[in-house]
């Protein structure tokens, strides 16, 4: 087996780690995929993402360090451990004349990932990844659900993390009431929205709501829209999701 290249995601939250991992996968890293992390919640979010691609992930832990290794079902098993030199690994299919310990893990970065191996098989990718679905997402609050605002904020971030993952994206995301706070503050959510916009989604924020909260000049993503567009979205699109 060729060497396994580790993508360093240390210090990143779920949204940034997810976007960087997706870019890494799109550039064609080898199987398996290895991600270096330092947050358990990020490791769990990425585990779910990699499972959605048909990969088999496993988290290795050493103090605050995390290594997330995901492989295809027909790939050989890999033994991973951590010592003074960092993460090390060997495969269970190594030849008898090879050294007893093979250090397979090497650092990588997403900018050069395309040189490491072939493109991932179509079975591990969502079909029509760049296509926009005939759907609109209407966001009327900065918090998802009623109750605890801290939890609601985390749910909102997880929602947009998942929405920005590979797969079909909605054609329109419309923000109104306190939902406009999500498009006017630099945050992980804004990064996910910028990514969705770059992939073809339309992002609008209600001008009336921006005026009410004195946020007219603080828009970070998308453009100013109006109530007519929000109402028309509910009439025109096949699916409407209200957050």
Notes on the structure:
This protein is of the alpha/beta class. It has 2 domains: 4-123, TusA-like domain (Translation Initiation Factor IF3), CATH 3.30.110; 132-242, Hypothetical Protein Ychn, Chain: A. It contains 6 helices and 12 strands. The protein has helices at 14-26, 40-52, 149-163, 188-198, 207-212, 227-236; strands at 4-8, 33-37, 56-62, 65-71, 78-83, 86-91, 105-108, 132-139, 169-175, 202-206, 223-225, 239-242. The protein has a 5-stranded mixed beta sheet with strand order 3-4-2-1-7, with helices on one face. The protein has a 5-stranded parallel beta sheet with strand order 11-10-9-8-12. Helix 1 (14-26) packs parallel to helix 2 (40-52) and helix 1 packs parallel to helix 3. The longest helix has 15 residues, at 149-163.
Pick out its properties.
243 residues, alpha/beta, Translation Initiation Factor IF3, Hypothetical Protein Ychn, Chain: A, five-stranded mixed sheet, 6 helices, 12 strands
Widest sheet: strand ordering: 3-4-2-1-7
Shape: elongated
* Poorly predicted segments: 96-103, 108-130
Q: Mean pLDDT score, rounded?
A: 77
Number of domains: 2
**SSE pattern:** EHEHEEEEEEHEHEHEHE
Structural class: alpha/beta
Estimated share of beta-strand residues: 25-35%
State the fourth-level CATH superfamily of the largest domain: TusA-like domain
Q: Strand count, sense and closure of the main sheet?
A: 5 strands, mixed
Outline of this structure?
This protein has 243 residues and is an alpha/beta fold. It contains 6 helices and 12 strands. Helix 1 packs parallel to helix 2, helix 1 packs parallel to helix 3 and helix 3 packs parallel to helix 4.
